[in-house]
Amino acid sequence: MAVTLSTEFECRNESACVACGGRQAENYLSAPDRFFSRDIIYKLVRCPSCSLVWLSSPPLPSRIGEHYGPSYDSFIRKATEKKSDQHWQQTLSTIQKYKSGGSLLDLGCGAGSFLGAMRNPQWKLFGVEMSEQCATMARQRTGATVFTGDVLDADITPGSLDVVTCFHVLEHVYSPAEVMAQVFSWLKPGGIFCVHVPNIGAAEARVFGTYWYPLELPRHLYHFSPASLSYLGKSLGFDEAELITCRVSFIEYSTRHILSSLLLRFGIPHPDLASASAPGLLWRIFRKGLRLTVLPALSAIISMTGQGQIVEAVFRKPFPVQAAE
Questions:
Q1: Pairing verdict, β 123-129 and 145-148
Q2: Pair 44, 223: CB distance under 8 Å
Q3: What is the pLDDT of residues 128-150, one digit of tens each?
């Protein structure tokens, strides 16, 4: 693979961490966009104080769309649409520990998979989605009010929401602190912000290194650990209600990145995730066998060595402190 450096990036002060303000960012790793098999090398840096990792000199906002496109949108939409209401049961249970109804906003709602699971007379549903096609599907599927565009441009009345959810979106935004501050302003006192992000501190991330699928360079601009996400939430005024890691394996996609890279080194073309066609019958049978045998065993071994692959956090907006009489 030929290695080149991109000229599309904007200059940025790499020494200031948006979570803790630390100014000693250190090199973390360098890797290409493996989803599209592109040869531009991207650099991640890490804050040693809170462990937040971010993309050094990211693509300009005006050009970030070039790193998504129809094939990426289709890949993500298919993965999301496979998630049944049963998939969301744990998340629903988490939310119900704090709220039994009210106004709920899902950031990056996609085609409405989660909003569909939340469809209930007790909830008034809202969403924000960049893709007009997905937003339309979400409206038709759930009856929710869905704003199309950037999260920070959404027309939400401050102090009007009981719950805001954000599943695998915060890592895509240029200003996660600004987004979380906006969420804080939208929530009622006692309202909760439920967020899921890949865990850069996961054992699986260490095992696969630059081939770990959730790196998603350059679409993932920030990479959180439990410590950095906790620090960011608390710095913005949230109370941390709960924060855990869970085991949702990305081994299959990470292994595919490795296989594609090895084959290319030997001059054997192999479709990347962006261009892969629907698998044939023999491959589906073989893949099913792997999913039932090798992959669970490998996942279990890796899981024993450290944290899970997803950070799940619930932050709560505190009630105003009552002045003593």
A1: parallel
A2: yes
A3: 998 898 899 999 999 999 999 99
